[in-house]
Amino acid sequence: MTNSTTQYIVVQPTTVEYEIKKSRFIGMIVSSTNEAEAIRHLQTLAAQHPHANHLAFAWRIRQADGFINERCHDAGEPSGTAGRPILAPLEGKSIINAVVGVIRYFGGVKLGTGGLTRAYGTTAKLAIDAASLNPWVEMALLQLDIEYSQLQTLEYQLNKCHGEIIDQQFTDRVQVTINLPADQKPHIQQQFTGF
User: Fold this and answer.
1) CB under 8 Å to 170, separation ≥6 — which residues?
2) Residue 164: CB partners within 8 Å, gap ≥ 6?
3) CA-to-CA distance for 101 and 120, rounded, in angstroms?
4) What are residue 100's phi and psi, to 5 degrees?
5) Rounded Cα–Cα distance for residues 129 and 131 (Å)
6) Domain boundaries, the chain
7) What is the pLDDT of residues 122-176, one digit of tens each?
8) End-to-end CA gap in the chain
9) 8-135 has which CATH code?
10) Cβ-count burial of 53 within 10 angstroms (0-12 exposed, 13-18 middle, 19+ buried)?
11) Which of 86, 91, 122, 151 lies 20 to 30 Å from 113, alpha-carbon distance?
12) Span 24-46, average pLDDT
């Protein structure tokens, strides 16, 4: 699923708690740029709560081709009552490269499928609402061969557009590899190479 609207990423991981009919729900949202990282975050959450009854989750991870990989899991709850309600607010807020895990400690009172759906969805929404989000910006790499006298100007331009030098080699000229917002690449390239 590709999305032309603004997409958001999680800047600060967040954990919240929600209680309903003696069941305790703990929701966590954290940035994950790939599935292996998302799984590690979920394993850490599970290790922090070894006596929890369930750990349902959902993630949305942007692939290099722009496709968004979505996955959700009910963790033993009735089908569709946990994973999907966690995924829905991630989709609704256009959040990518994030995983939301919701721990449940059963309180002895059955919530029913509607109650479970609301509880998991509410916990996910509370975690998402508490998180710090920034618009996602597509980045691009650019290699330049510049004069020493141009280096300070390049650093200034990169600072303005939130880019960075990730490698530089000094010979009679300076070979730099930079990471910058993709929409700034043509401007910077033209400014420093004339092309």
Assistant:
1) none
2) 158, 178, 179, 180
3) 10
4) -120, 125
5) 6
6) 8-135, 139-193
7) 999 999 999 988 888 888 888 999 989 899 999 998 888 888 888 999 999 999 9
8) 34
9) 3.30.230.30
10) middle
11) 91
12) 93
